[in-house]
Amino acid sequence: MDTKEKKSIKKPTIKELKELAPILKKSFERFKCLNQYAILQITENSTKEEITSKFNHLYNEYKEESMIIEVLVNAHKMLTNDNQRQIYDTFVYKNEKAVLDQLDKIKKKNKKNTLSNKVCKIL
Q1: Which terminus, N or C, of the chain has the lesser number of Cβ atoms within 10 Å?
Q2: In whole angstroms, what separates CA 118 from the centre of its chain?
Q3: With the C-alpha atoms ordered 13, 51, 37, 59, is the resulting torsion angle positive or negative?
Q4: What SUPFAM superfamilies does this protein map onto (predicted)?
Q5: What is the CA radius of gyration of the chain?
Q6: Domain limits of the chain?
């Protein structure tokens, strides 16, 4: 008898979300994008080795651009950390449009520039 257990996804703690918040904020400020996979130009099925390989390639390509490097480093750290990646995938990546819409509402309330809902074009 096949007894496959479904992997339960635990709700992230406030501490775990606080760890991700600055990373997402910086990538959004720099590129108007929360998608860490797009920043590293990889797919969500990429392995850690593929993530690191692409990161190294982009790092060498943009090593003179400190703002870009900072975002690349943060995306690499997030996606190669199993716990952070699971939280990101579950609560941000799969809900990016909802997160962006919520940020847009907040910005409109504060009467600042509204966020673009255009597809991210990174680097």
Answers
A1: N
A2: 16
A3: positive
A4: Chaperone J-domain
A5: 16
A6: 15-109
The pLDDT of residue 119 is 36
Type of residue found at 7: K
CB 6 within 8 A of CB 70: no
If the chain, 123 residues long, is cut into consecutive pieces of 10 residues, what is the mean pLDDT of each piece?
Answer: 49 71 74 80 94 95 86 92 88 73 64 39 36
Taking a C-beta distance cutoff of 8 angstroms, is the pair 93, 31 a contact?
no
* Residue 112, Cβ density class (10 Å: 0-12 exposed, 13-18 middle, ≥19 buried): exposed
Q: Which residue do the tokens 């130009």 mark? A: 41
| pTM score, whole prediction | 0.64
Query: What token pair was written down for 86?
Result: 């699971």
* Single-letter code of the amino acid located at 66: S
> Are residues 55 and 72 in contact, defined by beta-carbon separation less than 8 angstroms?
yes
Distance CA 8, CA 32 (A): 31
Query: How high is the pLDDT of residue 56?
Result: 96
Q: What is the CATH number of domain 15-109?
A: 1.10.287
